[in-house]
Specification:
heterodimer; A: 439 residues; mainly alpha; 18 helices; B: 164 residues; alpha/beta; CBS-domain; three-stranded mixed sheet; elongated
Chain lengths: 439, 164
């Protein structure tokens, strides 16, 4: 009984600190998730450094700390990932995605492939197994759309050609980042795994696409309190169970469910309820739990720092180069003459820089890779440390880099605004003169 | 008419009987300026967005409540996975047209459905307005305002203002 008390205590403390951390970091216009991770890190290290006994904060996992309560906390965090991915997919607009242009598509593919390949190569060179190296590469693939959107909005360039392409590219590479992790954690031969992936896609994508309407109608006819929400979450967990059983990646089930449901207005109407459970409870707990996994003693040896350095370098330059080259070779659909122009170079560079920040999906992929065994338990601490470092660096450097890359556009828009203001004042003065003259 | 009798009749009314004329509905084309949408929302609870005046294919719905997302500056939004669609509605963030801020996934109902069906659907999804469509064309609407009006008309204490 005593242990349940402390699990509830840990859950309460985690949620309160998560929200406070989120708020503090958001004030600096950075993703609040960093604050949640930071709070988790503080809580976890109170235990690692022996300041608080592990039984009082059973959210810390790892060697020597695992108890039945930490297993429950672990599961709650897993539910958090499921809700996060379900929400992310449910919020997607598939119609908009269909309109994605060639530039966004090519730059997404290269923007995913280049960091993946470079990350894999670098990690193999460092002596990690091929599977771990691949998992490390996958961590670098998905851009955090949120920060780019926010900075581009602030700079007033979101509606530009580069802004629109960045937006659709970031949505697509989230999808790819989530899908690719299957190859890292999936077991069995490549043929077996591919067959499972195809079967999974047919069940959760194709068949469910046609059945979902009938399922929602059935749920509506039950006429019970929150009946539709319950039935939808129930099916989400069934899909998650299937994905966990086949690929050790429950998120894929939640993601497919969200994606298919996003085509229905009934599904979209569930968002507020799902958000309430997700962002009110499970998702912040997931981030605190992840932060708590970072044992600062991991920095006692240089491995974690070297890995962090390598992953950060590949994450930043691999993305800028991959997505930038992808945009550049398409010449933004303006033909060959545009290819070697200064403008093409700058637009492609802006596109590349916009893809640097990573947050949620990288953490989700990290957790899936660790729990799925793609990253070995003895290497998990250094991967956690390295991922948290490259996430932090990527979100810190993106705003100033974007500001620099868009400096010409920002200047133009300022000049235009100033000119308009002058024109307006002159028109008003003329009108006043006219009125005075006529009177 | 007694209230019980009026409510019974009210529940069994077909939506096609009480739907307002299309011309009297708050409808704007997808390319309409946000300001024209806001002007309508001063007096109406929602605005329908269709492809164009000649082509009434339903694009989306802008509800009174969505105006909060439109008016908030981008920095007041939270940029988290699963929340980006709301953020994109911000006027200061770059939204300029009706289609930029409309919710594209609109709950619909058949014109042959009854008032009771509409009420049940409204409660289930906590929404005040449903689109009446034929294929993908918007042909009418049923809102709480229309329903209240219709009930008052049945009770002969006023109502059916919208029919004028």
């Amino acid at each position: 009984m005593e242990t349940v008390t402390w699990l509830l205590f840990a859950l309460g403390v985690s949620l309160i600190l998560a929200k406070i951390g989120d708020s503090i970091i958001e004030r600096y216009e950075l993703p609040g998730v960093l604050g949640e991770l930071l709070m988790g890190m503080i809580l976890g290290n109170l235990v690692y450094f022996g300041i608080v006994a592990p039984e009082y904060l059973p959210i810390v996992t790892g060697e020597g700390f695992t108890t039945s309560m930490t297993t429950v906390a672990n599961f709650l965090a897993k539910l958090g990932i499921i809700f996060l991915l379900f929400l992310g997919a449910l919020d997607a607009d598939l119609e908009q995605l269909k309109k994605t242009g060639v530039t966004a598509t090519v730059s997404t593919l290269l923007g995913v492939f280049v960091p993946l390949a470079l990350g894999w190569f670098a990690l193999v060179e460092m002596g990690y197994s091929s599977r771990e190296a691949f998992a490390g590469g996958v961590l670098l693939t998905a851009t955090s759309i949120g920060l780019t959107v926010r900075v581009m909005m602030d700079l007033g360039v979101l509606k530009s050609e580069v802004g629109a392409a960045s937006l659709s590219a970031s949505v697509m590479d989230d999808f790819l980042g989530i899908a690719l992790v299957i190859f890292a954690v999936g077991s069995g031969s490549l043929i077996e795994l591919s067959a499972k992936i195809v079967a999974f896609f047919i069940i959760t994508g194709v068949i469910w696409w046609f059945l979902v309407d009938y399922y929602i109608r059935f749920a509506e006819r039950l006429h019970v309190e929150k009946g539709i929400l319950g039935m939808v979450l129930g099916m989400t967990f069934l899909f998650a169970a299937l994905a966990e059983g086949w690929f050790a990646a429950a998120i894929e089930g939640a993601f497919m469910m969200g994606l298919v449901l996003s085509k229905l207005p009934e599904g979209k109407r569930l968002m507020e309820d799902v958000r309430a459970i997700g962002y009110g409870l499970l998702i912040p707990f997931f981030f605190v739990h992840t932060g708590a996994m970072l044992n600062l003693t991991v920095f006692e040896n240089a491995n974690a720092l070297i890995l962090a350095g390598v992953l950060t370098t590949v994450a930043v330059f691999g993305k800028i180069f991959g997505r930038g080259i992808g945009a550049w070779i398409t010449a933004w659909g303006r033909g060959r003459d545009f290819l070697f122009t200064r403008e093409n170079f700058w637009m492609s560079l802006q596109m590349g820089i916009g893809s640097v920040p990573r947050t949620e999906v990288a953490l989700v992929d990290l957790m899936v890779a660790i729990h799925g065994g793609a990253i070995r338990p003895e290497h998990a601490p250094e991967f956690i440390a390295a991922t948290l470092i490259f996430i932090t660096v990527s979100v810190l450097i993106t705003p100033p880099l974007l500001k620099w890359a868009f400096k010409r556009e920002i200047e133009e828009s300022r000049t235009m605004k100033a000119t308009r203001k002058v024109e307006r004042i002159q028109t008003t003065k003329e009108k006043i003169k006219e009125i005075k003259g006529s009177s | 008419m007694e209230p019980e009798e009026a409510l019974e009749k009210f529940h069994s009314l077909k939506l096609s009987q009480i739907m307002p004329r299309f011309e009297s509905m708050p409808v704007v084309p997808a390319d309409a300026d946000i300001l024209s949408v806001l002007k309508i929302l001063r007096t109406r609870h929602h605005v329908w967005v269709v492809e164009s005046r000649e082509d009434p294919r339903l694009v989306g719905l802008i509800r009174y409540f969505d105006v909060i997302d439109v008016l908030l500056p981008p920095e007041a939004h939270r940029f988290k996975l699963g929340m980006t669609s709301r953020t994109m509605r911000s006027m200061l963030g770059g939204a300029t047209k009706a289609k930029d801020v409309a919710e594209r996934h609109v709950l619909t109902i058949e014109k042959d459905a009854t008032v009771l069906d509409a009420l049940v659907k409204m409660r289930k999804y906590r929404i005040q307005v449903l689109a009446v469509v034929e294929g993908d064309r918007l042909i009418g609407e049923v809102s709480l305002r229309i329903l209240i009006d219709e009930l008052l008309r049945l009770l002969r204490v006023g109502g059916a203002q919208w029919k004028r």
